[in-house]
């Protein structure tokens, strides 16, 4: 979906990097904001909007998992955990071909836009055919990710995943992992294919992702860091079993080992990082890396709670992602992030330093951290993408609100319908809460799901 050549917006109220402003004119050319002016009356021609906030980045997604959402909620299995869920996910993968994969990704990306996410970091590890063989186009599945993003209009930061081993110390991969696997030379060829796949996708960003310390050796991690064309994302310290296995292998915890063996800086996003020591919390904050939190998935999988208040007090940066896509809802990710900490700490408004409301602080911090992790500028500012969310002040939860209380009401008190429109790269992709191509996308998804579940 190509950006429009030139669009001028007028917002009655908009959240700019410096705070809320009235009567805001936003000019964009080819999807990029070229000018922002405050205190200007509507000229009768600009696209008129009411309350506008910047789009939110979804920094961690496995799009294909949207189709298996809620199919693993069956009690009675002894020791049901992330690890047993993973085995079910591997079996689900055996049913996905490129067409089915693209239809599922488009459905997920459409839902992201309808919820307020305007860019996704697709942590993409489904590379090969069902039997593990390469497709004729090595980057076939990356082409399908790009096509789904282009069809829906969602911004894309593609993170092809390197996966070579099943556990620490270079353990051999299992047959269930055959669709993921590469050596370093093959992965370099995949990156070349991903570059070609993104050539026609507006404002796409290419990074890469060592899947985890379990899935690559120290030598492979070093090679991946050197070849990274953009952001570097990695799953780390999500489960206590992973921490214990890393200690047994190296004598160090996962985050401790990573910082001792890689040059972790602002390019990096550490996904989950749930189980940390105080020293690791400070180390991540000092490095400028972003922690990628996925509260809905982390709750669904029983991961545990990230030490958020300590991380915030240390000056840490964070963003949110939808990960397994069991539920796609930008507001719910932020709400659950705050509520998890309230339950753990037995207090209210436990994260915001005080000068901002909880909703405003959560949204602003996640938007800035998400943009950093996805390799794009943040906010409604010159040079950033023209990604705008229009809140509906006629929604019952938003009536009579102004400024920060609008964000608080959206995140903590509203459900569906609080977003009136979504503009991505200067083009309307959601109107009256509904994606402009919803019917066609959902029809293909329904057919794909019927094939899978048959």
Automatic annotation (TrEMBL):
One of its GO terms (cellular component) is cytosol. The keyword Metal-binding applies. InterPro entries: Amidohydro-rel, HutF, HutF-like_N, Metal-dep_hydrolase_composite, Metal_Hydrolase, Metallo-dep_hydrolases. It holds the Pfam family Amidohydro_1. Its cofactor is Zn(2+). Residues 51-429 form the Amidohydrolase-related domain. The keyword Zinc applies. It comes from the Bacteria. Keywords: Hydrolase, Metal-binding, Zinc. One of its GO terms (molecular function) is metal ion binding. Residues 10-45 form the Formimidoylglutamate deiminase N-terminal domain. This is N-formimino-L-glutamate deiminase. It comes from Stenotrophomonas terrae. The lineage of its organism: Bacteria, Pseudomonadati, Pseudomonadota, Gammaproteobacteria, Lysobacterales.
């Amino acid at each position: 979906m190509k950006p429009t050549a030139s669009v001028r917006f007028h917002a009655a109220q908009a959240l700019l990097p410096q705070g809320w402003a009235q009567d805001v004119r936003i000019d964009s050319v080819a999807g990029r904001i070229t000018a922002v002016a405050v205190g200007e009356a509507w000229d009768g021609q600009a696209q008129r909007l009411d309350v506008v906030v910047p789009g939110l980045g979804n920094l961690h997604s496995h799009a294909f998992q949207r189709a298996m959402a809620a199919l693993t909620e069956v009690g009675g299995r002894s020791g049901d955990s992330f690890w047993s869920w993973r085995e079910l996910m591997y079996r689900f993968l055996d049913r996905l071909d490129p067409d089915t994969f693209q239809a599922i990704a488009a459905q997920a990306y459409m839902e992201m836009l309808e919820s307020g996410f305007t860019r996704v970091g697709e942590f993409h590890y489904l590379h090969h055919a069902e039997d593990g063989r390469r497709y004729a186009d090595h980057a076939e599945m990356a082409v399908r990710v790009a096509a789904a993003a282009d069809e829906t209009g969602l911004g894309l930061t593609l993170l092809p995943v390197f996966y070579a081993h099943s556990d620490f110390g270079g353990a051999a991969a299992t047959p269930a992992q055959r669709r993921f696997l590469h050596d370093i030379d093959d992965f370099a060829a995949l990156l070349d294919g991903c570059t070609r796949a993104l050539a026609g996708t507006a404002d796409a960003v290419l990074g890469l992702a060592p899947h985890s310390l379990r899935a690559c050796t120290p030598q492979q991690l070093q090679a991946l860091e050197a070849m990274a064309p953009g952001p570097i994302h990695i799953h780390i310290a999500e489960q206590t079993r992973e921490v214990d296995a890393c200690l047994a292998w190296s004598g160090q915890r996962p985050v401790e080992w990573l910082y001792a063996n890689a040059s972790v800086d602002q390019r990096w996003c550490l996904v989950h990082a749930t189980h940390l020591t105080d020293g690791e919390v400070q180390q991540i904050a000092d490095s400028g890396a972003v922690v990628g939190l996925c509260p809905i998935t982390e709750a669904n999988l029983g991961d545990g709670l990230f030490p958020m208040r300590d991380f915030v007090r240390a000056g840490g940066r964070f963003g949110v992602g939808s990960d397994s896509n069991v539920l796609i809802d930008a507001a719910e990710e932020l709400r659950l992030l705050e509520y998890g900490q309230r339950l753990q700490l037995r207090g209210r408004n436990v994260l915001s330093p005080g000068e901002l409301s909880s909703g405003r602080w959560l949204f602003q911090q996640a938007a800035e951290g998400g943009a950093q992790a996805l390799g794009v500028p943040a906010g409604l500012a010159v040079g950033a993408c023209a990604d705008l969310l229009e809140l509906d002040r006629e929604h019952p939860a938003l009536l009579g609100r102004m400024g920060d209380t609008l964000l608080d009401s959206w995140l903590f008190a509203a459900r569906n319908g609080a977003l009136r429109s979504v503009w991505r790269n200067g083009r309307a992709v959601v109107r009256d809460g509904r994606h402009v191509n919803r019917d066609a996308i959902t029809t293909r998804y329904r057919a794909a799901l019927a094939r899978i579940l048959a």
